[in-house]
Amino acid sequence: MYSVEADNLRKHYGSNEALRGVSFHVGEGEIFGIIGPDGAGKTSIFRILTTLILPDGGEARVLGLDVVRDYHEIRNKVGYMPGRFSLYQDLSVEENIRFFATLFGTTLEENYDLVKDIYSYLEPFKKRKAGALSGGMKQKLALSCALIHKPDVLFLDEPTTGVDPVSRKEFWNMLTRLKQQGLSIVVSTPYMDEATLCDRIALIQKGRFLDTDTPSGIISKFTLPLLAVSGPQMPSLLRDIRRIPQVFSCFAFGDTHHVVMRTDGLSDEALTDTLSTALHAQGHSDFSIQRISPNIEDCYMYLDTLEEHS
Questions:
Q1: What pTM does this model have?
Q2: Taking every annotated instance into account, which residue ranges of this chain make up the domain ABC transporter (predicted)?
């Protein structure tokens, strides 16, 4: 039995189609990541799976329980950490976690072993009001409250958004330890670099999954040549690259432009020469071109461009 199953989930908000037939499953003890930008549909999926809203179509099950019929049972078996910090800001750290433990008929002492790796960071500040905590500490408190009733599945909606890099790393280390304890985790994030920390991922855009696979599996499907181009006039370079017929797509990545080329049966060297010749013809001279390997973000942009073309 899968921990989570979704089949053709659909959701509308008025005329806005937030989910357009989303299907996936999550195995026991697996970290499953839903990767995509704001507005792609991630939060709608989480709210359906945690029984906070109803789907307009399709079915979903958590631990074999239907999210519509068995919502009460599901709520006792899952932990949910929403994207926005939603704990009581005027209560202390300790008061918040004890309050949530009471809601589920347990105590901090009874389940301390489950949260001790996380709560140990918070104990020196247990009398501090939650509203006065830093972003990283708020994150740890929210995770402790989501775990205090010993859930079987943990849903984390953009848990590291707005958090410093050190706290992000600590948080993912915690998730790895929780996974090792057998907990199934569904996590969403707009950060493409966090995708590689998941066992499997789904890339989402405009309410539809572009692909679902392991991170390495998604990268292995990227077979078109990928070139990094840089030069002194980056805005005009980006504009002119996009005008070249042999270019499938081009996006700015930091201090370079990542260019996906149409192969047309040409070798890598011939494609590089084609791009270079076209740029020289447009008046560019001081630029560099090199072949690079794709990452998850490159795969996402490529699949999103394919979706737009279709």
A1: 0.91
A2: 4-231
